[in-house]
Amino acid sequence: MAQQTAAEPRRRFRHWRFRRAEARATLARQLSLSLALCTVTLSANSSPAAGSPLTNNDNDPHPVSDSQLSRPDPDHSSKSVLNGVNTKPTAAAAAKTAANYTIRAKLDPDSHQLKGQLTLRFVNGSSKDLDELWFHLYLNAFKNERTLFLRPPSRSRSGTRGKHWGFTDVHSLHCQQMGPTDLWQQAAPHSPDDPNDQTDIRVPLPKKLAAGDSMSCEIEFLSQLPNIVERTGFARDFHMVAQWFPKLARLEDNGHFAHFAFHPNSEFYADFGDYDVTLNVPQAYVVGATGQRHSEQTVDQRKRVRFTASRVHDFAWTAWPSFQVRDEQVAGIQVRMLFPEGQERNAARSLAALKFTLPAFNRDYGAYPYPTLTVVHPPHFARPAGGMEYPTLITTGAAWYSPPWVKGIEAVTVHELGHQWFYGLIATDEHRSPFLDEGLTSYAESKVLTSRYGAGSAFGGLGFSVSRDAYSRAAAAYAAHTGNIAWSADRFPNFRSIGALVYARTPTVLHTLGAVYGREKMTKALSAYTRAHRFAHPEPQQLFDAINDALGPAAADNAELAITESGWVDYAVTQVSTRKLHAPAGIFDKPGKRHTVTSPKKTTEYTNRALIERRGTLRFPTQIRLRFEDGSHVDRAWDGQGRYWKLAHTGPSRLVSAQVDPTNAIGLDQNLTNNARRMKTARAPRLFERLTYWLQLVLSVLSA
Amino acid sequence: MTGAATSDPDMSSPPISSPPISSQALFCRQLLLPAAVLWGYRASLAALATLPLSAALASTTAHSPTGDRPLFAPGGNYLLETLRLVKTPLMAASYAQLWLVVGGVVLGLIPLGFAVASVLDNGRSASKRFVDAIRHFPRLLLLQFTSIAAYMAVVYVFGSLSAKLRDALRNTLPISQADITTATFVLLGALMALAVGMTHDLARAGVVHHGHTAKASLRLGIYALGSRLVWLVGLRLLTLFGGALLVAVTAALVTKIDVHQSGVWRVIAVALTHQVTLLLVAGLQCVWLRGVVLTAAAEYARHHISEPPRSVVATPLPSS
To answer: Which of A163, A353, A565, B263 is the most exposed place for a label (fewest CB within 10 A)?
Structure first.
């Protein structure tokens, strides 16, 4: 009870934040109707693909607007799953399409440069008038070794360094509504407070853009691709072209741009928009890109390929003359596999993974709304391009000889596909809350892989198996006290820390919630969250609200504590005892008589006791299993609220051991080895036997 | 040369001559006994070396209701947790035990020498063969170092060349073809390493059975390998793959027995299966060693009686 009281202020705070979010939502709802008209008009008037996939309906709660995008959502089954859960979309879910891009770009394969012209149609969907724009020029992160991305000690995730530097130069920026002035002349020369970085550029507007007004800008730019550092660049004649054009930062409802300098720990954040991109590449190049291929023309040994994508927040593409192509329909989606010669087996494994994952994700998180998905397996010399997500395009990667018992290619495929929801459709701020995309994707990945491969979901063969959950749990426990899951990307000291806290500890939190409060309920929570915030930009609070609705306030408290306040828990059995029960000894007064009992009569029963402790800040209900000499056992439930529990049990048999959480439901338990205590310690014959055998084998090989 | 070879009464006795003996007894003396000695030595050393490691790991399962069974559970949850928690003491214990293992491997040349002496028994008692093995220990050790140096040279040469070859091929061929071609080249390196190992064993036979110096034994080994290459490679691969097959079958069998389940019989069954496998592996090694000794003896006798090889003539054999 005392603990419940302690939790009350946090819940009140959460509810206050929820009300605040509701107020914002109401405001946004009021704006959305008028803005919808502007957006639709703009798309219809200025887009070359007008009338095709680039229209949208902002009042649609599941805003997949046209025939190409309206895929049947298998919600018939999920409606029963979602019974009792608030699945109504928030105002954020009905977000406007705010930044539409029409781009024409020409690739020079020798200099690895892109010359581009970009038309940006932008709607001020915020509640405030704007006097500035913020552009991300991500390729400038690879301009020199003084940028935020490359300068020590951060460097890139993989530690790779540029040999060929990359950059984006904007040559001009003209906006119709702002007069003939080249606005780029007034652009800031560098990122705020960082003269060495040019990835986050402010452009002041000569006059304000009123809330609800739209603007059309023409941008000319030149992008020099670097050698592949992380996710973008070239290697020999292979090109992975991502974050390659001047990209408007996401405009939040409050009128502030969510802009940030490109940090090596960080990914991206942008508004949804309609993209119409025409790529001019040498004729021999095979091109894969975000969205749908609309047309292809060949002129003067070069080809122009036009792609359109509606309601996405980025556009990436790849071009390489040596790609093998395999097209297949998977769950109604046109899947295109692009891979090097010799990687046919991995392509088939990727495809197989898509076949069992797409239906599962469609069911759990809402239907994949796009008609296409492109899967790129980079060549071996461009390995850093693998394992990345972009809207409707993912990159994978594994050695061609990767054995079937190592689930690497399946894991990366499922993970990147999961990002089509947790990043693609639920477009959270990857810089500010990386756990919302990477953490939830890792959870979705591990859930699917476990249901498919069971205990061997990470490795299974040669009589030995390791599950992804076990791996995540170990990493999560390792990192429990090192930081906070909910940190923004730039606060993590290195990528290893993000790996442990975001990629590993987040799924462990969610698995624990599911195991303790009900896996079906956990599915309902994420199902509600993903459906309500489809095509929107939710924040952590929306996730906690969904957990609160589906699993209850206790689960939501634990989730919030674990994620935002480094919450942890360690259950331990610290004492056990067993004594034969006997009648009490001593002097007893009875009416008119004093009776002394010196040798009390023993009974056939035993008093068995165990002391169970809960260390840490999280409180999960759990069970304690008492095992007895006669082979029987008793399970006792504990609400886990107190710091300890003195458990007493009387029965006909001696206690052998007491174990807390015997089903290992609490993956967040910091130490599994103190979860039990025996009256008599056990030996480890299996361990000794196995270690001895292995060393004997080694000795046999050494002297063979 | 002949004088040197006959100066030691033991060495003067024909290597293949044995007193009349039943085939069963011969099997026991020439195969079972040396295999058992090799197995017993390795088992003792392994048990001694793993004791602190298993104690460190067992501390995490001492209070588990099902003992150390969770360490073998599918999924590896408890195993990873144990490794995470005892990583530091385990590493410290492993480092300390590493020296014990290295020392054990070096001293293992004595039971190995005994096995080499026993696989082609010339009638001497086991204790005498054992004493002989101790006597030959310095030369066997020298051969061991020479062999390690040769292995390292092979690994270095083929390792660096294969890396260059792979890079070159990957620029021109599809990656799988490039890697398979490189792997073929690496296989050549493996054959070279195999040849080093076979020469080493032939040289051991030269030391133990003919009392040669390490240098003379190596020359004899190289000569013998050259003259009976196919037979020796065939026997070597047969015994090696036989051993690998045994280990693989054992792994499958042990997986079926599944010590994660309850039942002491499972532990006993697995232990017996493992140890029988290791005894058989040692037996296969003795079969190989017998082939080696026979080859070396035949080559020695042929050249000793009629036309000794130039290399052997050039270096007079030692008297002891």
So the answer is: A163
- Between CA A660 and CA A678 the distance in angstroms is 12
Angle between helices B109-118 and B264-305 (to 10 degrees): 60
- How far is the C-alpha of A602 from the C-alpha of A605, rounded, in Å? 8
Looking at residue B1, its pLDDT comes to 35
Average pLDDT, chain A: 86
Q: Show which of residues 438-467 on chain A sit within 8 Å of chain B, judged by CB atoms.
A: 454-456, 462-467
Vertex B264, ends B42 and B282: CA angle to 5°? 20
- pLDDT tens digits, one per residue of A380-394: 999 999 999 999 999
B67–A contact, CB cutoff 8 A: yes
Q: By percentage, how much of chain B surpasses pLDDT 70? A: 87
Alpha helices in A47-101 (DSSP H): 75-81
Strands (E), B73-221: none
Least CA distance to A237: which residue of chain B?
B171
> How far is it, in rounded angstroms, from Cα A157 to Cα A598?
75
CB atoms within 10 A of CB A172: 14
User: In angstroms, what separates the C-alpha of B176 from chain A's closest C-alpha?
Assistant: 5
In contact, A423 and A314? CB cutoff 8 Å: no
Q: Which residues pair with A214 in a beta bridge?
A: A123
**Could you give the CA distance from residue A652 to residue A648 in angstroms, rounded to a whole number?**
13
Positive or negative: CA dihedral A107, A108, A111, A115? negative
pLDDT band at A154 (very low <50, low <70, confident <90, very high): low
Contact B57, B89 (CB under 8 A): no
Which of B:259-298 have CB within 8 Å of A?
A: 259, 267, 270-271, 274-275, 278, 281-282, 285
Contact across the interface for A478 and B84, Cβ inside 8 Å? yes
Residue with tokens 């032939």: B202
The pLDDT value given to residue A583? 81
| pLDDT mean over A293-306 | 94
pLDDT digits (tens, 9 = 90+) for A105-128: 999 999 999 999 999 999 999 999
Q: Is B64 on the interface with A (CB under 8 A)?
A: yes
B100 at the A interface (CB within 8 A)? no
In this model, does residue B58 exceed pLDDT 60?
yes
Report, as an integer, the average pLDDT of A161-171: 87
- What residues does A586 pair with on adjacent strands? A597
Task: Kindly give the interhelix angle for A440-453 and A408-418, rounded to the nearest 10 degrees.
Answer: 140
Confidence of residue B19 (pLDDT cuts 50, 70, 90): low
- CB of B80 within 8 Å of a chain A CB? The answer is yes
Please give the interface size between A and B, counted as residue pairs whose CB atoms are below 8 Å apart: 188
Q: Does A377 touch chain B (CB under 8 A)?
A: no
What is the pLDDT, as a whole number, of residue B159?
95
Judge whether A634 is closer than 8 Å to chain B, CB to CB.
no
Exposure string over A5-41, b if 16+ CB within 10 A, otherwise e: eebeeebeebeeeeeebeebbeebeebbeebbebbbe
Tell me if A673 and B51 make a contact (CB, 8 A cut-off): no
**CA nearest to B101 within chain A:** A699
The reported pLDDT for the residue numbered B8 is 39
Q: Name all contacts of A550-553 with Cβ < 8 Å and 24+ positions apart.
A: A550/A84, A550/A85, A550/A521, A550/A522, A550/A524, A550/A525, A551/A513, A551/A517, A551/A518, A551/A521, A551/A522, A551/A525, A552/A517, A553/A11
Sequence-distant (6+) residues with CB within 8 A of A321 are A237, A282, A284, A285, A286
CA-to-CA distance for A106 and B68, rounded, in angstroms?
64
Q: Residue A313: helix, strand or coil by DSSP?
A: coil
B154 token code pair: 């092979």
Instruction: Kindly list the structural domains of chain A, giving each domain's residue range(s) and its CATH number in brackets, ordered by start.
Output: 2-93 (no CATH), 569-686 (2.60.40)
Nearest-angstrom CA–CA distance, A485 and A497 = 10
Give A673's pLDDT tier (boundaries 50, 70, 90).
very high
